[in-house]
Design goal:
This protein is α/β, with parallel strands linked by helices. The protein is built from seven helices and ten strands. Bound molecules: adenosine-5'-diphosphate and magnesium ion.
Length: 229
């Protein structure tokens, strides 16, 4: 369902006229329902790669196929539609809107959707997902009243509200304590199975990485299977 073919990414370097090659030649196939961890040193291009997979950024060359559409060639409008309908994102920081309730935050991605599904259906899905992550009672609270771990669980629910086929998470436990990290890890593994959502995450946590079905290492612009487990 997801395929990267010879993806390269260069950034202009601060030195006049030069370029930094962050991704050199990335070829990757991820079948539906798999779970993949991407690990690697800081600055190795993990976020760059995840953003390219999630159509938030374009490769300098190469192709990115999502369900057979080449997302490296689509225009901004088409990309926005794909991002909204097919991809869920979780970042290191939850990016919840402080002035909105938990439930409102979860429903935000449904506002931009082109699907004519009713508001009621989305609210029911929000309710059942919030219940699933143990936050049903917090629906009408604001993010400021929640702990960091609870907020991140809301961010995971928000990422799944449109039933995407692909869930991307960039260091989802990076700012959480041990116990909350463990809960988020459990949740991601569980949702990967029950929602049949393909999961690709970037992490520094060996524990979280080991729970994925595959662990890939990004180093020096190249992606390889992790050498040691
Ligand atoms: P990681 O997530 O593995 O820490 P990143 O993907 O954030 O790495 O960054 C990889 C490299 O690309 C870094 O050297 C970073 O400075 C550079 N980089 C990332 N985004 C940009 C950008 N928009 N413009 C220029 N350089 C960038
Ligand atoms: Mg990063």
């Amino acid at each position: 369902m997801l395929e990267l073919i010879s993806v390269k990414k260069n950034y202009p370097s601060p030195l006049e006229g030069q370029e930094v090659c962050v991704l050199k030649d990335i070829t990757l196939k991820v079948s539906t329902g798999r779970s993949v961890a991407i690990v690697g040193p800081s600055g190795s291009g993990k976020s760059t790669l995840l953003n390219i997979i999630g159509a938030l950024d374009k490769p300098s060359s190469g192709r990115v196929l999502l369900d057979d559409a080449d997302i490296s060639r689509l225009d901004e409008r088409q990309l926005a539609k794909i991002r909204n309908e097919k991809i869920g994102f979780v970042f290191q920081l939850h990016h919840l809107l402080p002035q909105c309730t938990v439930l409102e935050n979860v429903l935000i991605p449904t506002l931009a959707g082109s699907k004519p599904a009713s508001r009621k259906a989305f609210e029911e899905r929000a309710d059942s997902l919030l219940e699933r992550v143990g936050l049903k009672d917090w629906s009408y609270h604001r993010p400021g009243e929640l702990s960091g771990g609870q907020r991140q669980r809301v961010a995971v629910v928000r990422a799944l509200i449109n039933s995407p086929g692909l869930l991307l998470a960039d260091e989802p436990t990076g700012s959480l304590d041990r116990e909350s990290s463990e809960k988020i890890a459990e949740l991601l593994v569980d949702l990967n199975r029950s929602e049949k959502v393909t999961l690709i995450l970037v992490t520094h946590s060996g524990e979280l990485a080991n729970r994925m079905s595959e662990v890939l290492e990004l180093d020096n612009g190249l992606l390889t299977e992790r050498k040691s487990r």
